[in-house]
Specification:
mainly beta; six-stranded antiparallel beta sheet; iron
Length: 456
């Protein structure tokens, strides 16, 4: 047993120092830990006797009868089946919730200052540091989304988490995430994202104070947006998505905690082995990560400001064509070259909800007040747009080619749903900026009824 533990530790250190990944989005992958060659069964999924005495287990991300181009599932070959655990009990209620009726509706423009990370003497891991800020819908009917903030400062030890309600799109803002999944290991750095799909067990290790954002979708899984007349290439290219390769640990451990998010609540079960014991796997239902620096930017090169949909990285479509349950949109570094154009984002009233976060830098439309680690929410049909400083500057600047957002990465979770803000989001966190509305109050009237077009 001591020799096995030593070998596992050595392999763990090796894998952490040089992680490798598969390339591609939505592919059929097959992987086996190199310590166990030929662990994948040949020619079938569920043989009478699996290699190495492993158990075969399928995880389904769609119904068995979903169309082939949408069907998501993977086969895992593991030391113990997932069913070996003691009964779940409900965890103490925290700031994670899907109770959208606990707080009165508020149509105002909202902006949050950076959310506070727990102090060093208050140890909080990823699963304990989930705080719901807004959302809509119901995981019980598999329809809706939730937006969470995670605030933590310590690693998950002998503990894993899985989400029965939907997929997590995770955006780290401060501190990188070392994530162990049933499929292998991922290192998710600042300016990268990852997606952990419904039901997949994972554990998050951190190196200190850590903060970030999560978009959770109940309906479906994230897809790449259609490119239409853009053509075959552009935006987030499939080859730049990375999926971990198989890695396992054969570790007996007393009272390993399994945290399940189920119907908007957290539950805890215990078992006496690590769940990261998958020696081999194959399928197309996998976790993955993406580096936002690889996004191929499309932009206007003559005049006008394109709609932000050109910056969509991933989308979760609804049943209504062209309308998303949720889009993940970024505002990356790029060149701005438009002629006779107001270049920043235009003033807008939208039939969609717009939740924005800032990973680093200064967002072009509001360089003051919108800070890294903070957020904003502009609800359905609530007016929003550039503040006074941005408007006056962009209206009078010489229109030369300019680099925009260099050193900055802002993003948006956009949804067709009307999002309710939680009690934690509006009151308990104490980060809501009550002065946000003032950034527009000094906009001046420029109307001149005597204006006439210039003659040439």
């Amino acid at each position: 047993m001591a020799v096995i533990k030593m070998i596992n530790a050595m392999c763990s250190n090796l894998m952490n120092s040089a992680l490798t990944y598969f390339s591609g989005f939505g592919n059929e992958f097959a992987s086996q830990d190199p310590r166990c060659p030929d662990a994948l069964p040949l020619g079938q999924n569920n043989p009478q006797h699996c290699p190495y005495g492993l158990y075969a287990e399928q995880i389904s991300g769609t119904a068995f009868t979903a169309p082939r181009h949408e069907n998501k599932r993977s086969w895992l070959y593991r030391i113990y089946p997932s069913v070996i655990h003691r009964p779940f009990t409900r965890c103490k209620p925290g700031a994670l919730t899907h109770n959208w009726g606990q707080n009165p509706p508020n149509p105002n423009q909202m902006r949050w200052l950076p959310f506070s990370i727990p102090s060093a003497d208050d140890k909080v891991d990823f699963s304990e540091g989930l705080h719901t800020i807004c959302g809509a819908g119901d995981p019980m009917t598999r329809s809706g989304i939730a937006v969470h903030i995670f605030l933590c400062n310590t690693s998950m030890e002998n503990k894993c988490f899985y989400n029965s309600d939907g997929d997590f799109l995770i955006v780290p803002q401060q501190g990188s995430l070392a994530i162990t999944t049933e499929f292998g290991k991922m290192e998710v750095d600042i300016n990268e994202i990852c997606v952990i799909q419904q039901g997949m067990k994972f554990s998050v290790n951190v190196k200190g104070p850590t903060r970030g954002y999560i978009l959770e979708v109940f309906d479906n899984h994230f897809q790449l947006p259609n490119l239409g007349p853009i053509g075959a290439n552009g935006l987030a290219n499939p080859r730049d998505f990375q999926t971990p390769v198989a890695w396992y640990e054969d570790r007996e451990v007393q009272n390993f905690q399994v945290i399940s998010k189920y119907q908007g609540h957290l539950f805890r079960a215990e078992q006496d082995h690590s769940p990261f014991d998958v020696v081999a796997w194959h399928g197309n239902y996998v976790p993955y990560k993406y580096n936002l620096a690889n996004f191929m930017v499309i932009n206007a090169v003559k005049f006008d400001h394109c709609d932000p949909s050109i910056f969509t990285v991933l989308t979760c479509p609804s049943s209504k064509v062209g309308t998303a349950i949720a889009d993940f949109v970024i505002f990356p570094p790029r060149w701005s070259v438009q002629e006779h154009t107001f270049r920043p984002p235009y003033y807008h009233r939208n039939c969609m909800s717009e939740f924005m976060g800032l990973i680093h830098g200064n967002y072009e439309a509001k360089e003051e007040g919108f800070l890294p680690g903070g957020a904003s929410l502009h609800s359905i049909m609530t007016p929003h747009g550039p503040d006074t400083q941005c408007y006056e500057g962009a209206s009078n600047d010489e229109l030369r080619p300019a680099r925009v957002a260099y050193g900055t990465q802002a993003f948006m979770f956009e949804s067709s749903l009307s999002l309710a803000v939680t009690l934690w989001g509006e009151l308990t966190c104490e980060k809501l900026d009550s002065n946000y509305y003032k950034c527009w109050q000094t906009l001046k009237k420029h109307f001149d009824p005597a204006w006439r077009p210039q003659t040439h």
